[in-house]
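Lab notebook, page 48
Experiment: co-folding of the full assembly
Goal: obtain a model of how the components sit together before planning crosslinking
Operator: M.T.
Materials (sequences as entered):
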Amino acid sequence: MRGASRTTPAAALAALLVLSGCSGSDGGGGEEASSNTLRIIYQKAGDASPLDTLMQTTKEQFEAANEGVTVELEPVEGTDEDYNTRLALSQRSPDTAPDVFYEDTFRLRSDVEAGYLLNLDERLAGWDEWVSFNEGAKEAGKADDGSTYAVPLGTDTRVIWYNERVLEDAGVEVPWQPESWNDLLEMARTVKEAQPDSRPFSMYAGTGTGEGTVMQSFYELLYGTESGGLYDEESQKWIAGSQGFIDSLAFLKTLYDEELAVTPAEALDPNVWQVVLGTMLPENQMGATVEGSYAPSFWQEGGMLEWPEYADVMGVAPFPTQDGQEPGAVSMSGGWTLAVGAGTENPDLAFEFLTTAMTQENLLQYTVDNSQIAVRTDVADAPEYLQANPFVEDVSAVLDVTNYRPATSSYAEISTAVQEATEAVITGGATPEEAAATYDEALKAIVGEENVVEE
Amino acid sequence: MPLLPAIVLIGIFLAGPIVWSFYGSFTNAALTGANAKNPEWIGLDNYTSLFADPLFPKSLLLTVIFVLVSAVIGQNFLGLGLALLIRRAHRPVSDVVGICVVAAWVLPEIVAAFVAYAFFFRDGTLNQLTGFAGLPAVDWLFEHPMLAIILANVWRGTAFSMMVYQAALDDVPQEVTEAAEIDGAGGAKTLVFVTVPMIRRSIATNLMLITLQTLAVFTLIYVMTAGGPTNRSTTLPIMAYEEAFRYSDIGYGTAIAVVMLIIGAAFSLAYIRLLRERNPS
Amino acid sequence: MSVPFSSTPTPTTTAAPRTGGAGSPRGAHRGSPSWTASAVLGLIALCFVVPLSWLVLASFDAEATYETALPASFSLANFTAILTPEQTFLPLWNNLILSAGSAAVTVIAAVLAAYPLSRFNTRFNRPFLYTVLFGTCLPITAIMVPVYSLFVQLNMLDSLAATTFFMAATSLPMAIWMTKNFMDSVPVSLEEAAWVDGASAMKALWHIVVPLMRPGLGVVFIFVFIQAWGNFFVPFILLFSQQNQPAAVSIFRFFGQFGTIAYGQLAAFSILYALPVIVLYVLVSRVFGGSFAMSGALKG
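Observation: model returned without errors.
Model output:
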């Protein structure tokens, strides 16, 4: 008796400890260890999330087709930045790594190198619908070794979205077609004069908006300069000492200094895009901004920032090159994919889930709901797609002049350095020259001197 | 034997990470990329980069400012002042004041952080108030991020110092202060020459504890400014988080953690010494 | 991490419950109260309360902004909007598991550890106590990066149980201090009688000492509970899936997504989440008298 009462509490505690140590995520996380459960991690932005709808539908179809298999959906709410961190945190441990997940194309190579993604080559070869995906889109899922690790859900482009009413009221002729950076400033100054409290032409900047800062702002500038982009494909080196980089920063500085854009403080808010798309444009406080081709997904019926009149009020224009040089306009494309976790216990089931999500019917619905640019040719030809919103044709047209981010594993860190440069400039912390020099230093520290080419 | 559960828990979850942090800071472990798969031993590289990183001295300085101004000056003096005033005020007033001050402290940290964010936000309550006074609106979180987080930390943490000093003042014998005043010493004089020396142990203890607490503040800053703009409020805990989890560089973030641990350990040891002198065995 | 109470213990022998401190100043009999002091205090209190008033007013205002304003119409819309299982109940339930779980583990481990420390004078005691105290002081925020790495190694990520134990461990040093202090005030003579009757030390502990120090253990339990309830950083790093997330993290996500839109709902959610700890705190101060634990633990 004495022995028993002595050890009970201690033993119970020790047992609990062991339990928690061994069973890992059994604490509540999931039964993912069991062989007929699939865990899917994806991002859920807002209450009305087209991706969430797609996942729910796929789950239903998949479970109906595979009796006894349970699909556990794990939507992650939050910003892109937040989602990427969450995903990376869970991928580190085999027990929490998902079977299928939503992956940003720019993280792909880095995550392949980390060994998080399953090579899909063989399985794709045996999937008869893979031929329906266009070649450009297929590229997005490839890693440095030439193998494919992810299947694209859609792609996108970036264009200028302008409010025709604001421009017309200021005497700017619509449809408006800027041909150089000067045309942008001219419009912005004209509108500012007519409507002093407006934000005539806003572009994102700073680390708050993350990839949005570079994709929907800085790269449109940089890739339209003589210097070109961040990375020299030919020599496979990163570009430092670029005049285009300085010019692009200087352009942003002008926008913010002359109060043509949102205030620097607003720009640093990660949610500023919600205010831009949800308030400033609909309420005629903003002339124009650079945004993704997917902007209508927020405005259309059932969207997160519903604004039914957008189709009548908004217009789009391609973003011009610096001085109007060839090819005249510039855009950026990215996109998201679905990938299979390298550590999945059920690669076949996981791949089947992925293909279920990617059927023509499912992908058409998602492409329309999320205002994506189609990656399947049979989606691109569907009338529902072409009539999804009045801008489908315009935003697809710039695919001819679009650019892709350098898809190397160090890209993510370099992107942050670029965002920091824009932040330093718009907050007055550094001149464009200083910020560009800081970026060059950071770049060398990240990839090593030997991988940098001075322009 | 009865100590076992405590030792196991502390061993795994407190000592474990501390030992691990020394090891981890010598590797290039990462969340993504090739280093995630095969982290390598890179010796002191993380530390050499850390000491070469211009953000590090800046972050260290911001941390020192944050601790010094918000805790050592703000919370400490305000807490002492409140404790003294509460003894002189009318009973209902002191009761209500006690509740108000403690309320900010009892709130979960994330809620307190949001409240502070809303208060300092450009369309928030503080600008509303300064607007009544005819002052121009200031974007506090953007233009004066350090001031905002310092004031927020004073608001949130003063209750602790106040309670420590209330308890300490309760132990000061009435007769001593009364005697001083009869001898003609004024209130201020009595405070400086009689009361403060008598509670100096509590003052030292309190300073040490609030320093350690403030050194570790993460949530408040993360929610209010996330370290920005342009790293103007990036204290060490924020820097460690950003490097490790946002920029995926676990090894580097761990090296920052080690620096924080060493600073924390120095203060802890000083604190323990203080107690030892106080309680000779 | 702000660590309410956790850093207060000092080696002390006078831990008897006592009243005093906040709300019951003994200075009352120290001459007549001063109007100036009251006025100054009132002013300071106002500064402390103004930020909080936004929280309360906004939660009842369907059209709340970040400005403090009386709601045009008193509305419960914000509360009804967030009272869904996914948004509120599950996160709060997770919070309850984490907090109650770590409080229970902490109290059990602390009682066991405090007993020999309080009753038997060995050479081991002092170093152990100082090590524990050292642990109390370390900034937990500082070790979150290595803790994450450790959890990766041990396969404990995204596990409520493991996170519970981690939180228990972080508050254990403090709890051992407080428990030892409370235990010191229980007279040894009662146990000695039990030993004479042939009871083991453990039996004496559970049947005689623990019941006598119930209020003290209640305080320890509640303090660990409050601390765990309010913790944001630990679950933010260690728990990812929605079904495991406690309210602090889901509030943060909510803010990240709707922070520029749904101010009122954010305020309402915050209030629901803060309410339990406020109630517990009031309970502690009512039942045990003022800042009893604070003064009990602090005075040496």
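Interpretation: The longest helix of chain B spans residues 55-88.
Next step: discuss with group before ordering constructs.
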